[in-house]
Amino acid sequence: MSSTPPPAAGAAGTGPAAGDADAPVLAIEDLTVTIGTRRGPARAVAAVDWSVRAGQTLALVGESGSGKSMTVLAATGLAPRAARVTGRVRLLGEELTTLPEPRRRQLRGRHVGFVFQDPMTSLNPVLTVGRQVSEACEEHLGMTRRQARDRAVELLDLVGIPSPGRRVEEYPHQFSGGMRQRVVIAMALACEPALLIADEPTTALDVTTQAQIVELVADLRRRLGTAVVWITHDLGVVAGVADTVAVMYGGRIVERGDVDAVFDAPAHPYTRALLAARPDPQRAGGDLPAIAGAPPSPLDLPPGCAFWPRCPVRGDARCEHELPPLVPVAPGHEVRTFYPGGEDA
Q1: Most buried residue among 63, 78, 88, 319 by CB atoms closer than 10 A?
Q2: In this structure, are residues 83 and 35 in contact, taking their beta carbons and an 8 Å threshold?
Q3: Would you say the pTM of this structure is higher than 0.90?
Q4: Exposure of 307 in the CB half-sphere (CA atoms within 13 A)
Q5: Are 259 and 245 a contacting pair, CB within 8 Å?
Q6: In b/e form, how buried is each residue of 55-75, taking b as 16+ CB within 10 angstroms?
Q7: Distance between CA atoms of residues 296 and 85, nearest Å
Q8: Dihedrals φ, ψ of 307, to 5°?
Q9: In this structure, is the dihedral angle defined by the CA atoms of residues 4, 205, 238 and 253, taken in order, positive or negative?
Q10: Is 17 strand, coil or helix?
Q11: 268 in the Ramachandran plot: left (φ > 0), alpha (ψ -120 to 50) or beta?
């Protein structure tokens, strides 16, 4: 793999380093998303706060329907038309929620790269991979077609695709699943974005390829200083990729903190249940522990703790009727529960 390519044309002064080096690349405050449906309003995300800085990886963790992807889609202006989004979102210090859509689209295209679960949904089968990687360079960086093609070769090399000068002319069907995901990562990095959003990027891949993609993203983050938001339900992946973790359930953050703190001393019953459900090579035979029941519908959320109906602790009436606040349990480690140590009710 080659060394980091030189900055793309027009890339100077685009990240936090151009101003306040400690400023978050993306900061979300009190973000709430309510979606209108035929059955009434569905609250998909409720009062979410987090930020991610350059060179840092934040993992959003939770089961399907917990609000992870919707949080990021709403923050970047990609929520469904029926969604009502409130709160504040700042990208590189610029408030996104009040911007006209053309300016928001420009910022998103230039400074945010997306990697989704299935690479084939991100790739056009009738265009060469080189053309697909180079399009953003022409659109957002003003490169000529020749410059953009050369940039595509650099990027394919950067993400570890052999013989990039030849493969740039090939089509998606000529690549394996893992190599297609590398192409998607190259597309996401085309404009040297300040922020990379990876939404379940390894789920459709075999275990060996998953590990390669995780290491690739971690390596690129270290070398390019990109901020990364990694969305996943797989806590095994989180341990190898994240600096900080935000666990979501029922559209809210129920626990967040440094990855070591959350893994070593999980304070929320839901986090402990997720960790217990991980495959363990030291555990001989038997079924994996499972969390009883199902996540709540955003159309019918309980008034108190959303996890209460499934919780093994199942505390007193407060849990059922009163929403626990997000409180610190250690420096840099917060949890939303009345029983942070797993104490009996």
Answers
A1: 319
A2: yes
A3: no
A4: 30
A5: yes
A6: bbbbbbbbeebbbbbbbbbbb
A7: 21
A8: -85, -10
A9: positive
A10: helix
A11: beta
